Predict the structure.
Amino acid sequence: MNATIRTTFPRTIREIEPRWIPLPDGRRLAARMWLPDDAEANPVPAILESIPYRRRDGTIFADATTHPWWAGHGYASIRLDIAGSGDSDGLLLDEYLESEQQDICDAIAWIADQPWCTGSVGMIGISWGGFAALQVAACRPPALKAIIPCCATDDRYNDDVHYMGGCLLNDNISWGSGIFAAISRWPDPDVSGEEWRSKWLERLEKTENPLIDWTRHQRRDAFWKHGSVCEDYSAIKAAVFCVGGWTDGYTNALLRLMEHLPGPKRALIGPWTHVYPHFGTPGEPMGFMQESLRWWDRWLKDIDNGIDQEPELALWMQEDLYAHPMDFRIGGHWIGEASWPPDTTSRSLHLGNGSLQDEPTDLIMPDHTTPLLCGMSGGEWCPRDGGGVGPEFQGDQHADDMMSLSFDSAPLDEDLTILGTPQVTLRLAVDKPQAMIAVRLTEVTPDGHSSRLTFGLLNLSHRRSSETPEPMTPGKTEEVTVKLNDVAYRFRKGNRIRIAVSTSYWPMVWPSPETVALSLHTAGSQLLLPVRADTVADDALQPFEPVEMASDHGSREIEPSITHRERTTDIATGTSVLHHVEDTGKSLIEDIDLIVQKRSEETFSITPEDPTSARTDMVRIVRAERGNWKPRTETRLTFACDVGNFHITATLEAFEGDNKILERTWDEKIPRDHM
């Protein structure tokens, strides 16, 4: 990546670490702040990023590229650890609790009241930080004027890491393992002083395993509605700049926000996965720092810079996508849309005998049962989440397509551009009351390479509602519609459009409790594509500036990182095992003399004829070292099932050097609820 690294800025700055932010109840939250040197004499607006990922030894490297840059352009830029994380007081019990939102509102009020602040505050964040920005904006703290949520969602049940279309995602279990490890980590004695150990022990003894609660809530109930701003978009009055990428797991939410938010709004969606756009991959990064500054200047400084007169959406129109687990490529160009939803026309392609065609047919396809190994080329639901570097993208879909019901168009006689939400309507019957389907839209090149452009999942018990699921009646034909993830794509002349339908998609999706036979009626079954024409908004879109950022934080590699992913098959039983290892290696954060290392291992196993053999095992080992101070946690988590229940077992061990100071275990059986 070519980037301009800035070390000098229009305003000189100083760094304050730690910057303690007091709360009304006496607790303190730990922050790192970058502030223009003359802010006390010439106050500035503030930008707040509030996340649990440890400002001091976690996100310190990425933080250094952004916060000093904003500060140097006339802002107080603050990176806050939420309660129970890093050195902050309190406990971190779960995602997005009401107490977290209240803490941030209190922190915003304190920031706005400081002599170096003008009283205007913005929030930014990616993933958890994006969620926090949306949720706090819905609380309407008076000083919060603008937000930039990146890679976040408005609906915690239907469009988050936990469930998709009412189907249980394995990423839910991976993230459950990740948060389980995160909430049990230690404060730094160089910041927290002698209290560090008592604060750590309180975290170790009182925090629980959030995955257990997530699994107890398998419907879209009040548990998930909390923190889902789609419950009332009108609550958000701040100006919202939505940012994401088509390869990320959260793009749909950004476009729903653009449709429903009442106030000033803007969207930027590139080809990228779960990263800030100035690190953008796959595809090309762009000058996000400059673009974010334009947003802050307009809504925090009231500078009339014209950004609110430009097209509301800047979107990457993808083309020539090449699916490969490591060498994943996307071509394309930027387009503009004045507003959302876009002005598109619909094109229907009807399902035939293995074909997609302009005219409908009336056939009953032979009963189909998808092998449980279908999905092995699907990649991760959110590839490269959290900075992963391994082969996490989708591969050539040909093998998965062959295990599915597949329907191909004729070679296209001209390019076809789509933008929006493809929908697939199916008239189907299944032989079990509980079943799921995965529907994928792919582009197939003349040499047979199949690349997934978008997909959708549907737990058939959730076909009418995820709040009140209903089992299927075996053998009864019903019509269901699956909305695929939003997409912008230009199919190339000479390539084919393919729809693939399967009754399993492992290891992305947890399988139904029994193998399912699917009967598909082609009459009434169709693909509906949102076809886009070029618009004047394309010409009105301003070109983006090249990548620019501040310099990274100083560190030195002591041991190299390791990433490894392999699939093995037991010849005797047919059991397939996917094993993934990521180890950050050892890095020395030089200015605080701290060595850090994280290791994760994930194992997904299944036997082809037995959906109850599905099993996920997770290990997280986190360690730090400064002289004789050597804290370490090791967490292990297993998620398994039988026909009627999910089984979760977990252990947490904490060490000081070689001395184990605590061990806790969990063993839960949770009934499957139409899942």
Observations:
- The first helix runs from residue 60 to 72.
- Residues 514 and 611 are 6 Å apart (CA to CA).
- The chain is about 15% helix and 40% strand.
